[in-house]
């Protein structure tokens, strides 16, 4: 059992029968009333985002989760097939639990967030950045570099992202896995 004093970003709590991740939280104090703790919550087992307020010192119900290393094997009609790097057991995860599914390629390392109470997967995320090869990109126009101009590029996974004009087809690029945006070229 925990109280609102234990609140932190990323904490997963059970509220009204659903699981939520704390995105942001804070405290409101007034001269006459007791302090209140508020939080912006993002649904883990649903797609809802809510705000909730507690009295300071109220009980909250955190859920213990573990981040385990897995390897993405392939995608089929049943979902994303992943293999535990330690036990070599395979699991199938629904696409709605996967963060940026367009950035996954065969053999990609990822992390499965497991609810330790039920041993069920709650989500899948990539490392902070991934390196992917550009399979198609139109050449940049010479002289069009006065501004931070970008062009679309297709990655080896089929995803289309915006890259600077100097990036060419066949190059490796680093992608931020949280936003899905181009970061930099990778020297091969």
Overview features:
single chain, 188 residues, mainly beta, SH3 type barrels, OB fold (Dihydrolipoamide Acetyltransferase, E2P), 3 domains, five-stranded antiparallel beta sheet, 16 strands, flat
What fraction strand? over 45%
What are the segments in which pLDDT stays under 50 over at least 5 consecutive residues? Answer: none
Radius of gyration equals 21 Å
How are the strands of the biggest sheet laid out side by side? 9-8-7-10-11
Per the principal axes of the C-alpha atoms, what is the gross shape? flat
Please, how many helices? Answer: 0
What does this structure look like?
With 188 residues, the chain is an all-beta fold. The protein has three domains: 2-60, Roll (SH3 type barrels), CATH 2.30.30; 65-125, Nucleic acid-binding proteins (OB fold (Dihydrolipoamide Acetyltransferase, E2P)), CATH 2.40.50; 129-186, Beta Barrel (OB fold (Dihydrolipoamide Acetyltransferase, E2P)), CATH 2.40.50. Helix content is 0%, strand content 53%. The strands form four sheets. Strands 9-8-7-10-11 form a five-stranded antiparallel β-sheet, with no helix packed on it. It has a five-stranded antiparallel β-sheet with strand order 14-13-12-15-16, with no helix packed on it. Strand 15 (172-176) and strand 16 form a beta hairpin. The radius of gyration is 21 Å and the shape is flat.
Could you give the topology of this structure?
Elements: E1 2-3, E2 12-15, E3 18-28, E4 36-43, E5 49-55, E6 59-60, E7 65-76, E8 79-84, E9 90-93, E10 109-115, E11 120-125, E12 129-137, E13 150-155, E14 160-164, E15 172-176, E16 181-186
Antiparallel strand pairs: 1-6, 2-3, 3-4, 4-5, 7-8, 7-10, 8-9, 10-11, 12-13, 12-15, 13-14, 15-16
């Amino acid at each position: 059992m925990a109280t609102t004093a234990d609140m932190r970003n990323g904490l997963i709590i059970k509220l009204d029968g659903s699981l939520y991740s704390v995105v942001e939280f804070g405290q409101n104090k007034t001269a006459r009333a007791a302090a209140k703790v508020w939080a912006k919550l993002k649904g883990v087992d649903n797609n809802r985002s809510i705000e909730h307020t507690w009295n300071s010192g109220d009980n909250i119900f955190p859920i213990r989760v573990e981040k385990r290393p897995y390897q993405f094997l392939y995608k089929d009609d049943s979902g994303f097939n992943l293999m535990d790097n330690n036990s070599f057991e395979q699991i199938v995860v629904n696409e709605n639990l996967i963060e940026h599914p367009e950035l996954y390629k065969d053999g990609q390392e990822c992390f499965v967030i497991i609810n330790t109470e039920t041993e069920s997967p709650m989500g899948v995320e990539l490392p902070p950045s991934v390196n992917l090869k550009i399979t198609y990109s139109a050449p940049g126009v010479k002289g069009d570099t006065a501004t931070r101009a970008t062009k679309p590029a297709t990655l080896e996974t089929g995803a289309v992202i915006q890259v600077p004009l100097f990036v060419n087809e066949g190059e490796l690029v680093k992608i931020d896995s949280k936003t899905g945006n181009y970061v930099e070229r990778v020297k091969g």
